[in-house]
Design goal:
Elements lengths: L9 E5 L2 E5 L11 H11 L4 E6 L6 E5 H17 L8 E4 L4 H12 L4 E4 L2 H4 L5 H10 L3 E4 L6 H7 L5 E2 L9 H10 L5 E6 L9 E5 H14 L9 E4 L6 H14 L2 E4 L8 H11 L4 E4 L1 H13 L1 H7 L5 E4 L6 H13 L6 E7 L6 E4 L9 E5 L4 E5 L13 E6 L7 E2 L5 E2 L9 E9 L9 E6 L4 E2 L5 E2 L1 H12 L3 E7 L6 E7 L9 H15 L7 E6 L19 H7 L1 H7 L7 E2 L2
Parallel strand pairs: 3-12, 5-6, 5-7, 7-8, 11-12, 13-14, 14-15, 27-28
Antiparallel strand pairs: 1-2, 2-18, 3-4, 9-10, 15-16, 16-17, 17-23, 18-19, 19-22, 20-21, 22-23, 24-25, 26-27, 28-29
Helix pairs in contact: 1-2, 1-9, 2-3, 8-9, 10-12, 11-12, 11-13, 14-15, 16-17
Length: 584
């Protein structure tokens, strides 16, 4: 049984909302992430820190903490020799890899911001518009590219006159210079610039200071004290260009002296086979994923008894975040855990954002269903605030989640290194655009529940508000596993419609339309209100677009972008077109 902190929260009622705080004070935390590496390299130099599939060979390439420290210091010295500093960051175009990690840590060791960029903007984009916009904001001093041939078109689109980093060609480190710059690092030093996923607009460069990263890991371990009982082992694909994989998971391993096996797979056709193969070899003690990732992995766990038993053999915790998990997926995860011969591991979640490093609330107690996002972390205050009068969301029952604490960003990176402060409310809280509510108002210790994004909700012509987040989950549950995602339409219309993105395995089924019609009618029988009943649906042929900002590489669907970009399809949805499924 893993150790959690007690489920407890202090609640202060304030102006139609409330402020929630952990009764635990935040304990002292590290000066910088580099101190973690230095400490583990001194204490356990032979322990494996990172591992990845060895190229052109069987097995894994492993990197120990001692070897990592030596490489990080050499890279830090090489970057200083190139003239990089706090105003000239390193731009990383790379999938997760050992070398990627070393460049990030090397830059941070020298007080140089690291800016890992989503590989999708380089490898999946057709116009490179987002990549160019990001580079214009960054004005990097150097670019690290993991595979120059794979990134040739992206580099040509950028046309930047800066050095391309090749690790084997970096000069030996000037140890004195590295030590001098490392000693100058403070809590205010910029460690990373992480670009938001664009799920609610254009990507912005969020400044991540050493204080944010180190405070956040201290907050995590105070809620999950089991992390100090034994070094964790994870197999993880989540991209380091985003805060979930790059901050929460990577830093959790580094802070706790654990081992991270870099998973070269992801939740996509054929790539998920790589994940399954890795999990047949490596049994994690914790497993992190997004809902789409669990949905892609579940068929393998359900069909392969050996994989299932290996996966759950020492698994203590299943963790999902970045999007809401359908309850159907929750039940399937419980079922495969029992089929493996034991009770399900702790199934938990958390909530936060790129601006909060990322964890602001965390589940540190057993929960019965998906949707609960836990309680505030020590030192991090959560306000549930009524929307401002100018907000387009309903003021009667939706409360916005706002955050204040040492894990909150000082602002957004501007060309040349200036920082644009975030727009805080009058009390210094960061508005997030996410809504939340108490699971049980009579017992706040049962945690908060994610209640959708306030900006996604809209009114029907009757004036009835539609809670889009909850409805989308209900539609995905009703249509599982035929539908991978859905966008809800009906703003200022008499009834609701849905744009359905079919699962790749179901898209070619001749019976798909009939099956979906039956599923949606069953949904409507259980949800007859005008704000929950789907009157019409359209099955889409094209998947969500990265370039169009419709989806992130973690699988989060941008509802607003889909409806805007596919306005013609929305009009067809509410027309007499034969392609429309008329549910009601």
């Amino acid at each position: 049984m893993i150790r959690f902190a007690p489920a407890a929260v202090d609640v202060e009622t304030r102006g139609g909302g409330m402020v929630l705080r952990s009764p635990q004070p935040l304990a002292p935390f590290a000066r910088c992430a580099g101190d973690w590496l230095e400490a583990w390299a001194a204490r356990t130099p032979e322990r494996v820190f990172l591992a990845e599939r060895a190229p052109h060979a069987a097995g894994w390439r492993e990197l120990t903490y001692g070897a990592a420290r030596a490489s990080v210091r050499r890279i830090a010295g090489g970057l200083l020799a190139l003239g990089l500093d706090a105003t000239r960051p390193v731009m990383l175009l790379s999938d997760n890899s050992i070398d990627h990690a070393l460049v990030q840590l090397g830059a941070m060791h020298a007080g140089i911001p690291a800016a890992p960029i989503s590989p999708a903007y380089s490898l999946q984009s057709r116009d490179f518009a987002r990549l160019r916009a990001i580079a214009a904001q960054l004005r990097p001093g150097a670019i690290y590219v993991s595979d120059e041939s794979a990134y040739t078109r992206a580099l040509q689109a950028l046309a930047l006159d800066v050095p391309l980093l090749v690790l084997v060609e970096l000069p030996p480190a000037d140890d004195a210079a590295v030590e001098r710059e490392f000693s100058k690092i403070t809590a205010n030093t910029i460690a990373k610039i992480l670009f938001t996923s664009g799920s609610t607009g254009s990507p912005k460069g969020v400044v991540n200071t050493q204080r944010m990263l180190c405070a956040n890991q201290q907050q995590i371990v105070q809620l999950w004290p089991f992390l100090d009982d034994a070094p964790p082992v994870i197999v993880d694909w989540l991209p380091w260009s985003h805060t979930f994989g790059g901050n929460h998971n990577f830093n959790l391993i580094l802070r706790s002296g654990g081992t991270l096996y870099v998973d070269g797979g992801k939740p996509a056709p054929r790539a998920i086979d790589v994940t399954a193969a890795n999990l047949r070899e490596i049994a994690p003690t914790m497993y992190f994923n997004v809902p789409r990732g669990f949905d892609a992995l579940l068929p393998f766990l359900e069909a392969d008894a050996a994989l299932r038993e290996r996966f759950f053999s020492r698994l203590e915790l299943l963790f999902y975040a970045a999007a809401a998990l359908p309850q159907t997926s929750w039940r399937r995860l419980e079922a495969v855990a029992r089929a493996a011969g034991g009770a399900p591991p702790a199934m938990i979640s958390a909530w936060g954002s790129t601006e909060t490093a990322p964890m602001a609330t965390s589940v540190h107690f057993r929960i019965e269903r998906a949707g609960v996002i836990g309680l505030p972390a020590p030192g991090c205050e959560i306000a549930l605030a009524p929307p401002s009068p100018s907000s387009s969301s309903p003021s009667s029952d939706k409360l916005e989640l706002r955050v204040r604490g040492p894990n909150v960003t000082p602002g957004y990176w501007q060309p040349g290194g200036a920082i644009e402060p975030p727009a805080l409310d009058a009390d210094g809280f960061l508005p997030t655009g996410d809504a939340g509510r108490l699971e049980d108002p009579a017992d706040p210790s049962r945690g908060l529940v994610f209640d959708g994004r306030t900006a996604e909700n809209f009114k029907l012509s009757s004036g009835t508000w539609v809670a889009v987040g909850a409805l989308r989950l209900a539609i995905l549950a009703a249509c599982a596993p035929l539908v991978q995602d859905a966008a809800i339409a009906g703003h200022d219309r008499e009834s609701l419609g849905a744009l359905l993105f079919p699962h790749p395995d179901a898209a070619a089924r001749p019976s798909l339309r009939g099956e979906l019609l039956e599923r949606l009618r069953a949904h409507n029988r259980e949800h007859p209100a005008s704000s929950t009943r789907i009157a019409r649906a359209l099955v889409l042929a094209d998947p969500p677009s990265i370039d169009g900002g419709e989806i992130t590489d973690k699988g989060y669907l941008n509802q607003r972008a889909v409806l805007t970009r596919r306005a013609a399809l929305v009009e067809r949805l509410f027309s007499a077109d034969d392609s429309v499924l008329v549910v009601d």
